[in-house]
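Example: Aldo/keto reductase.
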Amino acid sequence: MSTQVFTEGVKLNNGIHMPWLGLGVWKTKEGPEVISAVRTALEYGYRSIDTAAVYGNEEGVGQGLRDSGVPRDDIFVTTKVWNADQGYESTLKAFEASRKRLGLDMIDLYLIHWAVTPSYRETWKALVHLQQEGYVRAIGVSNFQIHHLKQVIEDTGVVPAVNQVELHPELAQKELLAYARETGVQMEAWSPLMQGKLDHPVLKEIAGKYGKSAAQVILRWDIQNGVVVIPKSITPHRILENAQIFDFALSSEDMAQIDALNLNKRIGPDPDNVTF
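Written out as C-alpha cells, the predicted fold is:
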C-alpha cells in the first residue's frame, strides 16, 4: 500500500486549497461498492472525493469517509445539486438533504450540476447564500459554457471557484480553459480518461517513453494544463495507479502531441441542450 498522501493542489479563487487529484464515484453503486472505493482511495492517499445527489451514493460516500479514519478536516468533499432541484428555495433544501446523507456539517465544494435554463441563475444565488452563511467552503458549477459563467458573474459579482466539465484529449476545451484562467475559475475534468478509450497509438507511445500507462499520461497532461482530475474506479489497483502521476513530468513536445489529439468530440451531453 502506498504511504504517500496526495495533497498537492491548487488554491481556489477564495483561498481554499483543492487537491489536483480526487476520486470520482459516478455510477459507483450505493452500499458496499462505494464505501469500499472511498475507503480504499483514502487509504492509498487520496484526499478528495467527488459525488453528486443524482449519483444516489452520498450515504455510502459518507460512510466510507468515516470508516477510513482519516480526519474530516483533511478531506475535500464535493457534491452537486441536481437539475430537478434547481431554483433558489429548492436548492437550499437539496443542499440540506445532501449534507444529511453525507453526514457532514460542511461541504467543501458545492456545484450546480448542469446549467438548466433559466433556473441555474437562481440556483447560483442560493449557492452564494450557502457560502456566505458558512455551510460551504467553496461554490462552483459543472458543465457551464462561457456564456453561462458570464451570466452568473454578472448576476451576483461572484466568480465560481470551479467549473467541472467533460475534458480529455479528444475534447481539450481550449477556449473554456483560457476563459477560466482569465477569470480565476479552476477547471476540473470529469471523464478525463474518455471512459476507458485509451488504445491510441500516440498515448501508448508516450506512455512507453515514461514507463507509465496511457491513463497516467492523460492525468498528468491534465495537471500540467492546470486542470484538476477526478478519475473514477472501484478497482483497488486502478485507484492506486491513477494516483501515481506526481513522480514524472511530460515534456513540452509530448504535451503538444496530446494537445493535437483534440477533435472537439464529446462523450457526454451538450451543455447547451440540457433536456434532463
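Strands lie at 9-11, 17-19, 23-24, 48-50, 76-81, 107-112, 136-142, 162-166, 186-190, 228-229.
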